[in-house]
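Hello Y.,

Per our agreement to keep a running log of every chain we model this quarter, I'm adding this entry. I've kept the format consistent with earlier entries: sequence first, then predicted structure.
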Amino acid sequence: MRTPETHILRPRLRSFVRVATAIATGVTILLLSLVATAQEDDSMAAFLAYMGIDENKLASLDADPILVEISVADRSRQAAFAGLIRVPEDGAKLFFGSAPGAPPMIIEPEASGYFSNPAALKNLAPLELGEDDYEVLAECKPANCRFKLDAQGIQEARSIDWKAADAHRRFLDIFQGFLLQVVSQYRKQGMEGLPTYADKTQPFPVARGITLLAGEADPLLRLYPTIQKALTSAPPVASPASPASPASDRILWSISDFGYRPTLSVDRVIVRRGPDNKNLGGIIALENLYSNHYLAGRLQIGGALRRVSASGASTNYFWILDQILFDDKLGGIKRNLLSRGLKSNLSDRLKAIRQEGLALKSTASPTKEP
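Predicted structure for the entry above:
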């Protein structure tokens, strides 16, 4: 039997339950928000700690970049440098060149081109080697060659009559076929399809260099799980990226001069959106699959970074990490020369990215950067 009090209490109880449920839901959302914010702040702290940059340096950054040397396991064969510069925006356009098909903004090659899928000889039509390359190739021997090739490539180079008028053309044809094979085998087999350099006494698999450098960058790569996974996976069939769809996976050849002679490199270019994080934006990685001089491995990574203050104001940055594994031990003088060249090159690249950002902003809006 229901009493009048029962009629009164039940609506009140239902109201109380609704209010309690709403409060609990609100508290849960608040707690989740606080946890997410804490995780994002932890990610930012981990990033700055890896770079060796404190909050004061970050706050004072403007037109000139901060450049730092990252510690490595073996200074006799490795070098790693990082840099950070302030930019006016963190848009995806900062990852790409000024025109379709241009190399990404984090490198400044003298010549370059992308491989189609499948790779085709026409992709390498603009490629030319220098006279210095042909001079060292004429003296190339197994385990003693100043041009990086696998065992078969060295054998084919030795089969050429270097005094013949068509010697250069013959080797270039062989070399272009070798590069197409590197790309095709990598796309089919992943790291197992990469070549093993036979130019030194100890053969060196390219995959070993990738694994070593990715391992040393692990504290940073853990913040970007999509890139970390991609570095050790075979590339998917991919279409060219665009600023409107900032995710791609392509293979690029380029020629750059950062040492004693221009170096040809073949790199996998991976662009991914950043993690779901207010501080860490999009990221790009260049994973070296082949180089004809100096390098046993190279991993270049760059990305957008945003610092949000307590008031909600944001400041945007762009960063680059350049890790190099040399193919031989470096003496102090040679290492210092290469280090200065690499740091100068890194500074120039960051300044170019800032200028690209300023140009993009001036096109979009007449207001100046604060």
